[in-house]
Write a structure and sequence with these properties.
The chain is α/β, with parallel strands linked by helices. Helices cover 29% and strands 20% of the residues. The protein has two domains: 385 residues, Glycosidases (TIM Barrel); 141 residues, Trefoil (Acidic Fibroblast Growth Factor, subunit A). The structure holds 2-acetamido-2-deoxy-beta-D-glucopyranose (NAG) (3 copies). One 2-acetamido-2-deoxy-beta-D-glucopyranose binds next to helix 4.
């Protein structure tokens, strides 16, 4: 009896687990990943868009942040719940090359740094991890992410555990005090081998933010090529990701001199873009002028790689989530417009709401963190909604509807797109439900399948759809240095107007805001990007036909 009841219970347990296991594995793409021109693709050649959060595990304790605050599975589940499909998980070289460190139990690692409260927190939230060696804690974090269908990019952030990055921390470039190329290659090989059979480890970022006085382009080629070969030999399944120079702000040297590797289909570049490091002065200059100028720099420094047919991963961007930093707010909207237009792969800095210890401060608050200081809530819930449209692909091979390409009109301030709503005119809504527009060579914004086009009436009025697209109020130019004002000067009375999204989401035409010069005025409600999409149109098919029927037609009132 006892022996028969236990398999029954086991079976019951399996049945209960099954739906979760099945749904979890169902949402991984078909792995491993590879590249196809500028796209990262799954094993069927379908685009996989990396929408990642950075999760630090490279500071002094050498453990993923937050384990004293929340259960590791709870954290991984939050990553998934916020819509991310991947984590860029950081590690210091010593985790792979110093076995004394790798075998140090998490408890001791925290205690040696005097962090008794963190020990108590891990005991409560992750009791099973407390006495595991640091390397096993790292593997458990990867496993928890796998259970939640989250892909992992392993990122070699530093050699020595600690906050990154400064020019003088001895971790900046090959030959620096703590940056021995041989040790680095050994560390990469060890990590690549360790995760060879770990399906959700899809990529390795070879070294974060190369920098400092020893930077040297010819050594960059020598060692990055060696690092890529070492990783590929140990683990041919992973993508290899190469960082640029100057804190990963520039890859411009690649413009005319590509890297040479023995393998193909696995190489990705990474670039970082923060508001504080892009050469623009977001707070003191006109926002259109700065965005236009900075995007020009970003193109020269790295975006050109997409045009050359290489994948480029924006593996760090971030902003002060309190929303009170004006420069960061302005930069963010500009960044999101480029992320939409180029349909970038990206990783936000950062998941962690706080650190065990950072730069000597215990329980350091991460103002750029997606999570709050206590890891309990989202620091900025509206940002999670705003980034949602950029978490899935607009373009690329294998999308459900990839034979048909159309335009969507993206509004980076809200993260929404311009939709046609029956009776209500045009308004902002989910980009997944966007109508198919065509921004034609004659500068008309035509609603495909109906032939109707966007028209301006007059200042302050809702933008309308009309049928006579040859009328001059149907021609829309992209103006200002940001190129994000959609404008016509052919209203009834000849005034120049710009498309504008009002706070309730209605699309109106208003006087154009702060096109240039004025540093104080905020144009973001009038910023739109007309981007390419070939997503399947999931909604709005009935809406497409309605405007031609007219709202008060006898047919609709009798039904
Ligand atoms: C290895 O790590 C241990 C523990 O942090 C440290 O005491 C030791 O100095 C390290 N060894 C080397 C060679 O860095
Ligand atoms: C870069 O390194 C190479 C090879 O060691 C050396 O010949 C060259 O002088 C270095 N360049 C600079 C600018 O330091
Ligand atoms: C827009 O229409 C033109 C002319 O019909 C066509 O050549 C072009 O491919 C269309 N573009 C998009 C994005 O739909």
């Amino acid at each position: 009896m006892a022996s028969s009841s236990s398999p029954t219970r086991l079976l019951l347990g399996l049945l209960l687990l099954l739906p979760f296991a099945a749904s979890a594995s169902a949402s991984f793409p078909s792995l491993p990943l590879s590249t196809s021109s500028r796209w990262v693709v799954d094993s069927n050649g379908h685009r996989v868009k990396l929408a990642c959060a950075n999760w630090a595990s490279h500071l002094e304790p050498v453990a993923a942040e937050g384990l004293a605050r929340r259960g590791v599975d709870d954290i991984a589940a939050r990553v998934a719940a916020m819509g991310f499909n991947c984590v860029r998980l950081t590690w210091p070289t010593y985790l792979a090359t110093n076995s004394t460190l790798a075998n140090l139990p998490l408890r001791w690692s925290l205690e040696r740094l005097g962090m008794r409260e963190s020990v108590a927190g891990v005991r409560v939230n992750n009791p099973g991890l407390l006495d595991l060696p640091l390397i096993d804690v790292f593997k458990e974090v990867v496993s928890a992410l796998a259970r939640n269908s989250i892909m992992v990019v392993l990122d070699n952030q530093m050699t020595t555990p600690g906050w990154c990055c400064s020019r003088t921390d001895g971790n900046g470039f090959f030959g620096d005090k703590y940056f021995d190329p041989e040790e680095w290659l050994n560390g990469l090989s060890t990590m690549a081998t360790m995760f060879r059979n770990t399906k959700n480890v899809v990529a390795m970022s070879l070294r974060n933010e190369l920098r400092g006085p020893y930077q040297n382009v010819s050594l960059w080629y020598r060692y990055m090529q060696q690092g890529a070969e070492v990783v590929h030999e140990a683990n041919p399944g992973v993508l290899v990701i190469l960082s640029g120079l100057d804190f990963d702000n520039t890859l411009s040297f690649l413009f005319s001199n590509p890297v040479h590797l023995s393998f193909t289909g696995k190489l990705v570049f990474e670039q970082h873009w923060y508001g504080f490091s892009d050469g623009g002065n977001w707070e003191s200059q006109n926002q259109n002028d700065v965005c236009g100028m900075v995007v020009g720099f970003i193109k020269m420094k790295g975006l050109f790689l997409l045009q050359q047919g290489w994948p480029l991963f924006f593996s760090e961007f971030g902003f002060d989530m309190s929303g009170t930093h004006i420069g960061d707010n302005r930069y963010l909207t500009c960044f999101l417009s480029v992320a939409a237009e180029m349909d970038l792969d990206w990783a936000i800095w950062a998941l962690q709401g706080s650190y065990y210890i950072r730069e000597g401060t215990l329980a350091y608050d991460e103002s750029y963190g997606l999570l709050s200081w206590d890891w309990c809530t989202a620091r900025n819930p509206s940002f999670i909604k705003r980034i949602n449209a950029l978490q899935s692909a607009f373009q690329g091979p294998g999308l459900p509807n990839s034979q048909e390409t159309y335009n969507v009109i993206f509004h980076p301030l809200s993260g929404l797109c311009v939709l046609v709503k029956y009776l209500k005119g045009l308004e902002l809504g989910s980009c997944g439900e966007s109508n198919a527009w065509n921004y034609t060579s004659g500068h008309e914004l035509v609603l495909k399948a109906t032939g109707q086009c966007l028209q301006a009436e007059s200042v302050g009025e809702i933008a309308k759809l009309g049928t006579d697209c040859s009328k001059s109020n149907s021609r829309w130019q992209l103006i200002s240095n940001s190129g994000m004002h959609i404008s016509t000067e052919h209203t009834k009375d000849g005034t120049r107007v710009c498309l504008d999204a009002s706070p309730d989401g209605a699309i109106t035409t208003n006087l154009c805001k702060c096109l240039t010069a004025d540093p104080k005025c905020n144009p973001e409600s009038q910023w739109f990007k007309i981007i390419l999409s070939s997503k399947g149109i999931t909604g709005g098919t009935s809406i497409l036909q309605v405007p031609s029927l007219g709202p008060w037609s006898p047919a609709s009132s009798s039904s």
